[in-house]
Write a structure and sequence with these properties.
The complex is a heterodimer. Chain A has a domain of 38 residues. Chain A contains 3 helices and 3 strands, in the order H-H-E-H-E-E. Chain A has a two-stranded antiparallel ribbon with strand order 2-3. The relative contact order of chain A is 0.08. Chain B has 3 domains: 287 residues, no CATH class; 116 residues, no CATH class; 58 residues, Arc Repressor Mutant, subunit A (Orthogonal Bundle), CATH 1.10.10. Chain B is 39% helix and 21% strand. Chain B has 15 helices and 18 strands. In chain B, the strands form 4 sheets. In chain B, strands 1, 3, 7, 8, 9, 12, 13, 14, 15 and 16 form a 10-stranded mixed sheet that branches. In chain B, strands 6-5-17 form a 3-stranded antiparallel sheet, with no helix packed on it. Chain B starts with a strand and ends with a helix. The chains are: A mainly alpha, B alpha+beta. Chains A and B meet through helix 1, strand 1, helix 3 and strand 3 of A and strand 2, helix 1, strand 10, strand 11 and strand 18 of B.
Chain lengths: 95, 477
């Protein structure tokens, strides 16, 4: 399977990446090489192998339902470019 | 042409935990903005999510209650989209393998019971909240809600009317509260519904194109949004058009649904397994432990109420609307025999429900304890007061005037069952109502009831109606 330039533009848009034509062309070639590798891996017969969702074969550790974090709002808000009235300020986006 | 409506619901149930699904920040409602959003919730680089055990327990309890398959191994996925109240740029959810799969919920509509199948229930985190008031043309972001645990419960498209959708939503709402996994507070967003609605010609087997109506937070809006949407789709098709698959919002003020302004690719979420989280494994021991601690479920209790207390299906259904109400009934009915439990059900579903309704309160706010109600029912059963007088006693009890016995004594409401006293009353009434006595003797049956009424009136309602009947009939023949 090979990607087209349109696929690359669409993925870039979904990922909020701006690319010029030369960058998109270069990205297309790089992605197509990755897809070739994926194609090779998909050719391997894995019918007898259980699916693996994580490279480490252990289960998720759980934590007890306790509130352990205290209010650090001021320190965290200070990291943001803009804040007011205890809120992070961002350009207006209304869906 | 006749049309068939097809509805499936997706319900976001906020799980009632103290801390968030992947962090130790508090989930309490109504805190000052961003005071319950820690480093994990605001997605600082390098932080890692750690799953809350209570979230898993509550999801599994739900699965057990609806006869689901509990997947022993489920995985978390990233659902990617950009929005300012989602700081990571993805929501942690479950995609391919959710913790709960299949199962069903029975809904009762009148005399008909219908089974709605469930597709799945998966765990995910909630997003933050955007405030679009005027911050110099910008939006304010409150991340207190970010990371709040949600169980998204997805039904099959098994409902055929808005009424069925509402019945399902109500049954689900009652169940999650019954299981104590969600507080069910709809104003605070603890139970939010999305409805997938389509129409097709009656008899067709293929589904029509569906629209998803998002974020309905009341049963009334759910019903109205579906009614509007069904009509819109039918009108559109009847006019030669076709339904476009899209997400719509319901506007309660205009009572209509509107297409959300969103790009066509908005739903390309590019799910992939979250490398920050290992697979969730549920052990046999954990399942067995939870299974053993499950409460009696509404359907089981309904069944038991009809057999153990000889209640009608209707009464049993009303009494199992909540665990608190069912418990109230069982405490009130404890030790009552014969018609006692049926009387208790009638008083709870009738007079008490009316008082609570008037006060817009639930059973927890009843000023009459189950034991006090039982004492009143015992006085009806042993003939101390008539059902009619008992209503006055009940009102006085509700108003806080004391227990049934003291009110009956203080107000002199004891039913007159003394034969001699009743005979005298009947004789007085016969003497004073010659015309009606003559009517009755001339064959007018109605006149008899009028005379009974006179005796009851003369006794201020305290005469035993059955005895009055007997005495009057004897004296008039």
């Amino acid at each position: 399977m090979a990607l087209t330039l349109d696929d690359v533009r669409r993925v870039a848009q979904l990922a909020r990446l701006r690319q010029n034509d030369a960058q998109a062309q270069a990205m297309l070639e790089e992605l197509n090489r990755i897809f070739a590798l994926i194609g090779e891996m998909q050719a391997v017969d894995t019918s007898a192998v259980a699916a693996m969702s994580h490279p480490r074969d252990v289960a998720q550790r759980l934590r007890p339902d306790r509130v352990t974090e205290t209010d650090r709002r001021d320190a965290l808000l200070a990291l943001a470019p803009l804040s007011e009235a205890g809120l992070y300020l961002v350009p207006k986006v209304i869906e | 042409m006749t049309w068939e409506t097809v509805i499936g619901l997706e319900v976001h149930v906020q799980l009632s935990t103290r801390s968030k699904i992947f962090s130790g920040a508090a989930t309490a409602f109504g805190a000052e903005p961003n005071t319950q959003a820690c480093e994990v919730d605001v997605a600082l680089p390098g932080v890692l999510p750690v799953l809350n055990a209570a979230v898993v327990e509550k999801a599994v309890r739900f699965g057990l209650a609806v006869g689901s398959t509990i997947n022993r191994r489920s995985i978390f996925a990233r659902k990617n989209y950009f929005y300012p109240d989602l700081p990571k740029g993805y929501q942690i959810s479950q995609y391919e393998i959710p913790v709960v799969q299949h199962g069903s919920i029975d809904i009762v509509l009148g005399d008909v019971t219908k089974t709605v199948r469930l597709t799945r229930a998966h765990l995910e985190e909630d997003a933050g909240k955007s405030l679009h008031e005027d911050f110099h043309g910008m939006s304010g972001i409150d991340l207190n809600r970010a990371g709040t645990p949600l169980l998204e419960i997805v039904s099959e498209p098994d409902m055929r009317s808005a009424a069925e959708a509402v019945a399902y939503a109500k049954a689900l709402h009652a169940l999650v509260r019954w299981l104590d996994i969600c507080d069910g507070n709809m104003q605070e967003g603890s139970f939010r519904m999305d409805a997938n609605v389509s129409v097709r010609p009656a008899g067709a087997s293929a589904l029509g194109t569906r629209c998803e109506i998002k974020n309905l937070n009341s049963f009334r809006f759910l019903e109205r949004a579906i009614d509007y949407e069904v009509k819109r789709q039918i009108d559109l098709i009847a006019a030669g058009g076709s339904v476009r698959q899209e997400t719509r919002l319901y506007d309660p003020e205009r009572d209509e649904t509107r297409a959300m302004r969103s790009k066509e690719d908005a739903h390309d979420y590019r799910y992939f397994p979250d490398p920050d989280l290992l697979p969730l494994e549920i052990s046999e021991a954990f399942l067995a432990e939870l299974g053993a601690s499950m409460p009696e479920l509404p359907a089981q209790k309904r069944e038991r109420f009809t057999t153990e207390y000889a209640l009608s299906a209707y009464d049993a259904n009303l009494l199992t609307a909540s665990r608190e109400l069912a418990d109230y009934f069982e405490r009130a009915a404890a030790g009552l025999t014969g018609q006692g439990p049926k009387l208790a059900a009638n008083w709870i579903n009738g007079a008490l429900a009316a008082k609570l309704n008037e006060a817009a309160a639930d059973i927890g706010a009843s000023t009459i304890t189950p034991r006090a109600l039982r004492a009143l029912i015992e006085r009806i059963a042993d003939g101390t007061v008539s059902s009619k007088i008992a209503r006055d006693v009940f009102d006085a009890m509700w108003a806080g005037e004391g227990d049934a016995d003291s009110i009956i004594e203080r107000r002199g409401l004891r039913q007159i069952s003394d034969g001699g006293a009743l005979e005298r009353l009947v004789e007085e009434v016969i003497a004073a109502n010659g015309a009606q006595v003559a009517d009755y003797r001339a064959g007018k049956a109605k006149a008899f009831n009028a005379l009974v009424g006179q005796v009851m009136k003369a006794s201020k309602g305290k005469a035993n109606p059955q005895q009055v009947n007997d005495i009057l009939r004897r004296k008039l023949t």
